[in-house]
Specification:
Blueprint lengths: L1 E5 L4 H4 L9 H8 L4 E2 L7 E9 L7 E12 L5 E8 L17 H13 L5 H5 L1
Length: 126
């Protein structure tokens, strides 16, 4: 079974964008809002489309990916339009950052809550 996730603007729309002239607003007017955008320094617009194939019970396999990256200068004017395919990508290992719990922490919490209600009035007066 083939599926497509996301969307990238066709070449006809990308040809309407002129670097050095168009702004963020005109890009959104021409091709629509981005799939993702850069978070640092009002980064670029990224349009991402992924084709996947699933055969039976196996995990989906990515068969194609197209990324259109539109970058802007500090004034918000288009500085570059680039297109990347699956062959341009690289696999990035994900680092799991899990805090290990220790028995000493659990023991402290058990002792803390275990002592609640363990006091009687004569104990408080002493």
């Amino acid at each position: 079974m083939e599926r497509t996730h996301g969307w990238t603007p066709p070449d006809e729309l990308l040809q309407q964008i002129v670097p050095g002239i168009d702004s963020r607003a005109t890009v959104e007017d021409v091709v629509g809002p981005p799939t993702a955008s850069g978070v640092l320094n009002d980064g670029g617009f990224y349009y991402i489309e992924t084709d996947m194939r699933r055969i039976g019970w196996r995990a989906p396999e990515i068969t194609d990916r197209r990324v259109v990256a539109i970058t802007f200068d500090e004034t918000g004017v288009v500085s570059n339009i680039a297109e990347y395919g699956l062959e341009d990508g690289r696999i990035v290992p994900i680092s799991r950052r899990v805090t290990q719990s220790t028995d000493s922490n659990i023991g402290f919490i058990r002792r803390l809550f275990g002592n609640i209600g363990g006091l009687s009035l004569p104990d408080i007066g002493q």
